[in-house]
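Hi there,

I know you've been waiting on this one. I reran it after we fixed the sequence typo, so this is the corrected version. Both the input and the resulting structure follow.
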Amino acid sequence: MMIPEKSRITQGQFMFFVIQSQVGVGVLSLPHKMQAIAKGGGWISTLIAGLIVQVIILILWALCRRFPSDTLFSFLPKIVGKLIGNLLGLIYIGYFLFSAGFVLTIFADVIGKWVLLSTPRWALLMLTLLTCMYLVKENLRVIARLFVISSLSILVMLLLSLICYFNMSLDYIFPITEAGWGKIFEAANEGLFPLSGYEVIIVIYPFVEGKSSGKLKAASLGSLVITLFYAFEVFTSLVIFSPSVMPAISEPLLYMLKGFSFQLIQRIDLIFLSLWVFVVSTAIVSWIYMATTGLGRLFHRGEHKKAVPYAVLLVFILAMIAQDPSITALFDRMFKIFHYTLVMGLPLILLILSYLIRTRRVKSG
């Protein structure tokens, strides 16, 4: 597969691409979910989830290293044959589009609840997707450059969270293992899904310059940054809100910032939310780019731009369908099943198959 020079990115840009693909809607509700299961040990669960993600990244990297010039959609037929490979490619495209739709659904729910209470859902979704579509149409290098700049938003979000430590109480997290290690690991399993997005590796790996070891370091470092960011935000929420209050708060980070104001700034939570909107938009761009890369290869001779309009339309439809909380809960369960299957299970099977196929060819030769 020939990679155009304008689509090549550096390993540093690759790291920021992973960062922006991972950080998303999960950061607002993660503290609530972690505390509900692991109590004061929720931040440890987040770190454990991050460690598991590092193992998965290693598997994805090992698979991509077997086919250094191919994306997921071009190396699948080499492993399992053209028919099954293209079918699996379509399934992955469906997963990427579904993930974009699910992220957009949570995004619209939060914005509709906190800021634009009277804005029609369709208008909010359309404005967001039109902005994302404008960026997705560009080549990978342009997208990566914006992702590098937008990563500064995470640093500002981190600094805003530090303001809340004026009202902290470490007593709220003790005893840390109150729920038991079994619950801490159970919460770690739940924490895997807000960290999703690192699977972008299997799509953009061949576009990254440099040696494979450098690509692994970049992806691992990017994921580590988000793991530490999430763990910090979970820890912050746990030491600000008492265990009796946390179960009633679905977005602890916004609630704790809402309680602070300065002479020049009255609503710090809205500043945080504005930065979050920017960050989530880049995550949606990443998901749609992954899908359109596959659609471009399968139906448009490698031109992903031609697939962008109808891919965005499908994401819009998915987000419009999930207006009822029961539908959103169903989407959440479906996303977890897809993630287990397509990101954690299938890549390992494909990696094993790639070695078996090579061994068979060597023996035949």
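Quick highlight: Residues 325-364 form the longest helix (40 residues).

Best,
R. S.
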